[in-house]
C-alpha cells in the first residue's frame, strides 16, 4: 500500500498489467482533486515511493531511450476542464528520477469551475500509468535534439550532400555527351541531320530495349552495388576508348567505299540510313550518350537516391536537385565552349576536333570515377550506418494495361483524350523543329569545332533559361492559373516555329532587312531555332510537366490510375517516335529534309493548334473539378478543426452515477468497477476490474 496524505484515506495500491510489449504500473487516486484542495499537497511523496517500487523490481528494466507517458483521463469531455500531471523521467539516467508535476495545478480554481448541468459534482478518477517495455525501451521527457548545420540535421546532410555532388557530375557528363554526339553524327563526312530520325528509330530504340532486358537479368543475380559498377564501368571505358582509340582509327574502321556503292544504288533519299553504316562508331557513341541519360540518371542515380532517402527528405531536397541540374548545364556548356575553341590556338594541319574530343572525354572519364567513388563511400558509410533514417517506401503497384485496354481508356474519356493530346503534341513538335534546326546549324557551322562551340553556348543558355523559368513557374501558376500556364509552352512553340520556318521559306525577300542588322537569313534562322529549343525545353520543365501532373489530381482514383497508365503505354512512345516517323516519311518521299521543310512547317502548325485546342478544352474541365475539390478539402479542414469530442446527456448522467458510486465505495474502502465510457475520435481502451 502506498502512504497517503495525513488525514485522508489511503490510495489504492499499484497494479502491474501486461500490455503488448510492455508492463504498465497503474496507481489510482480517487477524488484526487478533492484531496489536493483540502491539503494543498503534491504527488511527489506517493510518486517517489512508486519510483522505488519500480527500481526494486528485478524483472523491470529501464532502457537508454525512454518515452514519456502521461496520466490518462477516463472521460474525453473532461480534457478541457481538468489539468493533468505528467509522469516524467530523466533521459540521461538509466534509473527513473523523481517525477514532477509538469502542468500548473490550481485546485481551488478547478473546484470553482462551472459544474456539469449546473450541479457541482466530484471530479473524475485519474489513473497514473508507468509503462516499462520488456524489450528495454524506457521513458524520456523529450527526444534529444539532433545536431544541425544550417538548419538541416547532420544525418540528413550525410546523405544529401553526396547525392547532390553525384547528380551534378552525372548531369555535367550528360551535357558534354549530348553536345558531342550531335557534332559527331551531323558534321561527319557523308552524313547530315537527316541521319537523326533513322538513328533514333532503328538503332537507339532497339539498343535501349536490349539494354533494359540485360539489366533486368543482371539485377536478378547481382547485388545492388555490384550491379551499379557493372553498368557504369562499361560507359566509362567506352567513352575513354572512343576518344583515344576509335576516333583516331575512324578511317580504317569505317566502310566508306561500301557506303558509297549503296548510296549510288539506292539514291540520295537513303542518305540517312546509309550514313548509319558509313559512320557506325559515331552512331555507337550517339546511342551510348543517349543511354547515359536514360540509364545512369533515371535508373542508377534515382534508384539509389530513393533507396537511402526518406519521404520527408525527398520532398524537401529533390526539387533542389532539379535546380542543381541546370547549374550543371551552365558549367558544362562553358566547358564544351572552352575545349571547342582550342582549335584557334593550334597550328595548321592539326586535327583540332580530335584534341578537343580527348579533353572532353578525359573529363567524362574522371567524373565517372568520381561518381563511382561517391557511390562506394555512400554504401560504406551511409547505407550500412544503422543510426541514419531509412526509407520505408514500398513500390506502388501500377496497373499493367495492354495496348487495346489503353486505347479503350483513351477513347472513353474526353478529359483523358485532351491530356493525351498534350503529351503527343509536345513530343512530335519538338522533334520536328529540332532536326530541321540542326540541319541549318550544320550549314552555318560546318566545322566540328565551330558546331561544338555553338552547342556549348546553347547548353549554357538553356540552363540559365530553365533555372529562371523554374523559379517563375510557381508564380505563373498562382497568378494566372492552370489554363494560362498550360498554354505557355505551345504558344512559345507556335510563335518561334512560325518565325523559324518563315526565315527558311522566305529568307531571300528578308535578306536586305536582315543584312542591315548584320545577319543573313541562315544565321537568323539558326538563332530563332535556338531560341525555340531553349524556351520550349525550359517551359516544359517549369510549366508543362507540372501542369500535366496536376491534371491527374481531380480524376477519380480508377481513372487517375488507368488514364496515367494508358498515356504511359500509348502516348509517350507515340510522341517520341511520331516526329521521327513523320520526318522519315517526308525524307523518303521528297528526297531530302530541305525539300520537305514546307510540309514539316505545315504539320507543325496543325499539331500546335490542336495542342492549344486540347489545352483550352482541358482547362474548361479541369478548373471546375479543381474548384470543387478545393471546396471539399476546405470543408474537411474546417470539420477537422472543430472539436470532435462531445459529451452527450446520457454520458454525463452515467458519469454522475459513476462518481456517486465512487464516493460511497471509496469511503468504505471497497473496490471500484470502472465502466467503459464511449470516446469519440480516440482509440478504444479496454476497461478492467481491479481489486485489492
TrEMBL record:
Coiled coil: none annotated. Residues 681-692 have a biased composition (Polar residues). InterPro entries: ADP_ATP_car_bac_type. One of its GO terms (molecular function) is ATP binding. The keyword Transmembrane helix applies. Residues 657-670 have a biased composition (Low complexity). Residues 638-692 are annotated as: Disordered. NCBIfam families: AAA (TIGR00769). Belongs to the ADP/ATP translocase tlc family. This is ADP,ATP carrier protein. It comes from Zingiber officinale (Ginger).
Amino acid at each position: 500500500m502506498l502512504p497517503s496524505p495525513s488525514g485522508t484515506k489511503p490510495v489504492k495500491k499499484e497494479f502491474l498489467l501486461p500490455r503488448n510489449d510492455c508492463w504498465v504500473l497503474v496507481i489510482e487516486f480517487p477524488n484526487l482533486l478533492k484531496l489536493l484542495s483540502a491539503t494543498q499537497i503534491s504527488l511527489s511523496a506517493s510518486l517517489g515511493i512508486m519510483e522505488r517500487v519500480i527500481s526494486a523490481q528485478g524483472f523491470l528494466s529501464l532502457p537508454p531511450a525512454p518515452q514519456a507517458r502521461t496520466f490518462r483521463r477516463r472521460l474525453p469531455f473532461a480534457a478541457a476542464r481538468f489539468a493533468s500531471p505528467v509522469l516524467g523521467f530523466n533521459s540521461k539516467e538509466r534509473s527513473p528520477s523523481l517525477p514532477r508535476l509538469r502542468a500548473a495545478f490550481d485546485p481551488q480554481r478547478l473546484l470553482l469551475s462551472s459544474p456539469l448541468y449546473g450541479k457541482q459534482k466530484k471530479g473524475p478518477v485519474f489513473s497514473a500509468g508507468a509503462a516499462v517495455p520488456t524489450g528495454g525501451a524506457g521513458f524520456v521527457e523529450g527526444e534529444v535534439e539532433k545536431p544541425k548545420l544550417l538548419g538541416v540535421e547532420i544525418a540528413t546532410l550525410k546523405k544529401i550532400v553526396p547525392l547532390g555532388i553525384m547528380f551534378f557530375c552525372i548531369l555535367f557528363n550528360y551535357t558534354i555527351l549530348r553536345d558531342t554526339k550531335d557534332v559527331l553524327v551531323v558534321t561527319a563526312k557523308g552524313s547530315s541531320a537527316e541521319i537523326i530520325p533513322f538513328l533514333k528509330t532503328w538503332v537507339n530504340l532497339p539498343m535501349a530495349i536490349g539494354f533494359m532486358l540485360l539489366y533486368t537479368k543482371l539485377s536478378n543475380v547481382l547485388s545492388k552495388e555490384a550491379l551499379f559498377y557493372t553498368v557504369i564501368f562499361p560507359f566509362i571505358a567506352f567513352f575513354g576508348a572512343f576518344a583515344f582509340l576509335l576516333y583516331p582509327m575512324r578511317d580504317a574502321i569505317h566502310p566508306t567505299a561500301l557506303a558509297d556503292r549503296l548510296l549510288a544504288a539506292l539514291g540520295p533519299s537513303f542518305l540517312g540510313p546509309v550514313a548509319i553504316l558509313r559512320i557506325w562508331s559515331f552512331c555507337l557513341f550517339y546511342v551510348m550518350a543517349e543511354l547515359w541519360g536514360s540509364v545512369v540518371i533515371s535508373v542508377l542515380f534515382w534508384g539509389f537516391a530513393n533507396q537511402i532517402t526518406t519521404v520527408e527528405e525527398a520532398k524537401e531536397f529533390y526539387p533542389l536537385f532539379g535546380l542543381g541540374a541546370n547549374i550543371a548545364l551552365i558549367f558544362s556548356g562553358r566547358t564544351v565552349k572552352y575545349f571547342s575553341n582550342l582549335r584557334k590556338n593550334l597550328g595548321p594541319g592539326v586535327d583540332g576536333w580530335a584534341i578537343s574530343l580527348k579533353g572532353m572525354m578525359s573529363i567524362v572519364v574522371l567524373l565517372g570515377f568520381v561518381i563511382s567513388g561517391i557511390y562506394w563511400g555512400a554504401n560504406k558509410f551511409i547505407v550500412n550506418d544503422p543510426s541514419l533514417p531509412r526509407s520505408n517506401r514500398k513500390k506502388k503497384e501500377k496497373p499493367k494495361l495492354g495496348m487495346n485496354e489503353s486505347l479503350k481508356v483513351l477513347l472513353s474519356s474526353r478529359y483523358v483524350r485532351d491530356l493525351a493530346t498534350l503529351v503527343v503534341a509536345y513530343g512530335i513538335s519538338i522533334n520536328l523543329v529540332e532536326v530541321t534546326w540542326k540541319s541549318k546549324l550544320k550549314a552555318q557551322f560546318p566545322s566540328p569545332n565551330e558546331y561544338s562551340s555553338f552547342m556549348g553556348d546553347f547548353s549554357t543558355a538553356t540552363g540559365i533559361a530553365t533555372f529562371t523559368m523554374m523559379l517563375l513557374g510557381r508564380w505563373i501558376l498562382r497568378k494566372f492559373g492552370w489554363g494560362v500556364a498550360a498554354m505557355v509552352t505551345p504558344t512559345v512553340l507556335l510563335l518561334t516555329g512560325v518565325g523559324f520556318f518563315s526565315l527558311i521559306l522566305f529568307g531571300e525577300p528578308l535578306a536586305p532587312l536582315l543584312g542591315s542588322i548584320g545577319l543573313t537569313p541562315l544565321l537568323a534562322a539558326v538563332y530563332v531555332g535556338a531560341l525555340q529549343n531553349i524556351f520550349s525545353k525550359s517551359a516544359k520543365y517549369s510549366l508543362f510537366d507540372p501542369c500535366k501532373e496536376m491534371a491527374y489530381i481531380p480524376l477519380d482514383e480508377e481513372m487517375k490510375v488507368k488514364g496515367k497508365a494508358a498515356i504511359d503505354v500509348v502516348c509517350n512512345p507515340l510522341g517520341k517516335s511520331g516526329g521521327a516517323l513523320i520526318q522519315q516519311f517526308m525524307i523518303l518521299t521528297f528526297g531530302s529534309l530541305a525539300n520537305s521543310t514546307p510540309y514539316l512547317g505545315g504539320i507543325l502548325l496543325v499539331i500546335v493548334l490542336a495542342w492549344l485546342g486540347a489545352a483550352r478544352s482541358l482547362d474548361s474541365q479541369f478548373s471546375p473539378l479543381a474548384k470543387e475539390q478545393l471546396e471539399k478539402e476546405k470543408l474537411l479542414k474546417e470539420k477537422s478543426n472543430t472539436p470532435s469530442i462531445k459529451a452527450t446527456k446520457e454520458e454525463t448522467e452515467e458519469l454522475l452515477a459513476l462518481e456517486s458510486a465512487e464516493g460511497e465505495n471509496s469511503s468504505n474502502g471497497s473496490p471500484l468497477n470502472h465502466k467503459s465510457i464511449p470516446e469519440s475520435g480516440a482509440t478504444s481502451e479496454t476497461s478492467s476490474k481491479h481489486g485489492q
